[in-house]
Amino acid sequence: MTLVVRRVGAEAADTVHAVVRAAFGARPPLDPPADAMAESTERIAQALAAGGGLVATLEGRAVGATLMARDDRTVWLRRFGVVPSAQRLGVAGALVAEALSIADGDEVAVVAREELPATIAFWQGHGFVETARTSPHVELRRAVPHTYPAPDADAMRGLGRVVGERVRAGDLVVLAGELGAGKTTFTQGLGAGLGVRGDVTSPTFVIARVHPSLGSGPALVHADAYRLGGIDELDDLDLDASLDEAVTVVEWGTGIAEGLADSRLEVRIARSAEAVEEGELDPRTVTVVPVGARWLGVSWP
Question: What is the pTM (predicted TM-score) of this model?
């Protein structure tokens, strides 16, 4: 089956209205009742005109939808639903992924009902964390990934500096990218933004290096997980800095370093999709993925 998620406007009001009624009409009775069933096509059209929305289709049939509403740097997902016949087919997850990819802000937020623990668990499983609760409503949020171009090494260092100016003691940054992608170059910029001592070079031959702060800020622990048997070995190294008091950057850390902290910053570096002629620059794209409550409220360019 072909699943397609597309952005829509007021022209899709009838479609979204039908999905909302089918999805919310199949939910168990709530007290007080959810007001989604009282939505009119006209009000949905107004919401779509103001903030847009998403419609998911399977083999051309509309099976999922959500409204999107911008509030400062937060994008709210409203009337998020999947028709009963298409549940457990990945439709809801595809809607979330698309919303995160197009959200024009720093956070995506939803409101769920506390009487529906499976719904809350769904959002938590997609990286959302509870930020407020006023019975019977539960607010959940997730920081939005941001993708930046890095046409050359200077741009890569500049992006690293952006991250370095936003991290603090105890933060974990996990770098992913193929050999030569620019992970160490990125870390050089991060170290500059953090204000640490010493030249940042690849930690491949020493497993980990500690760069003390030039001021009162945290040190930088720069580690290479490629040669570690497990991330627990970081704690066994005789480092001159506590990981709780330093900013830890782990190259090749995907699948290994995540256990160090509930919140982390994943930085994924990839060669740009466009063709590059021989002798020209080898551009990259850098995707910064904030994970966990720590990164809520952090603004990105």
Answer: 0.88
At residue 224, the pLDDT reads 82
Confidence of residue 275 (pLDDT cuts 50, 70, 90): very low
Task: Output the 3-class SS for the chain.
Answer: CCEEEEEECHHHHHHHHHHHHHHHHCCCCCCCCCHHHHCCHHHHHHHHHHHCEEEEEECCEEEEEEEEEEECCEEEEEEEEECHHHCCCCHHHHHHHHHHHHCCCCEEEEEEECCCHHHHHHHHHCCCEEEEEECCEEEEEEECCEEEEECCHHHHHHHHHHHHCCCCCCCEEEEECCCCCCHHHHHHHHHHHHCECCCCCCCCCCCEEEECECCCCCEEEEEEHHHCCCCCHHHHCCCCCCCCCEEEEEECCCCCHHHHCCCEEEEEEEECCCCCCCCCCCCEEEEEEEECHHHCCCCCC
Q: Does CATH place domain 3-143 in 3.40.630.30?
A: yes
Superfamily of domain 146-295: P-loop containing nucleotide triphosphate hydrolases (3.40.50.300)
